[in-house]
Amino acid sequence: MAERFTKSMARNMYMGGSLFFILIFIGLTLDTVRQLPERDNRENLTESVAHGKKLWEDNNCVGCHSLMGEGAYFAPELGNVFYRRGGEESFKVFFKSWMNAQPLGIEGRRAMPQFNLNDEDLEALADFLEYAAKINTNDWPPNIEG
Known about the structure:
- The chain is mainly α.
- It has 2 domains: 7-37; 44-146, Cytochrome c-like domain (Cytochrome Bc1 Complex, Chain D, domain 2, Orthogonal Bundle), CATH 1.10.760.10.
- It has 5 helices and 2 strands.
- It has a two-stranded antiparallel ribbon with strand order 1-2.
- The model has no long low-confidence stretch (mean pLDDT 90).
- This is Nitric oxide reductase subunit NorC.
């Protein structure tokens, strides 16, 4: 080994390291692209789900809630609320009742506003939350209460 670190040695290390990490990046990208079709939930994407997503955005639900870890942490995570509140059997009944009962008016507790959504809108928003809950997120969030 040379006693002195030359410019050409530094350049070769830089180029070799850059190439190595570019190849790693490309490999991880290709692996992700290969896995995505197996993980999506497109077969459940309906007009009602799309309408629910639009309601989610129009009412700025992400301003208080998080969905799969994205959003504000003022109110509960809603990525798995479908499973937390009854799943197929009772989620929609719970969700509609909960939304219609807002604000609860419990002193010292954060208050959710009343959005005055009709039954069709509540059904669509519930469908969107069900759709989001059924996306394969590699078990994220790690606990059922979000």
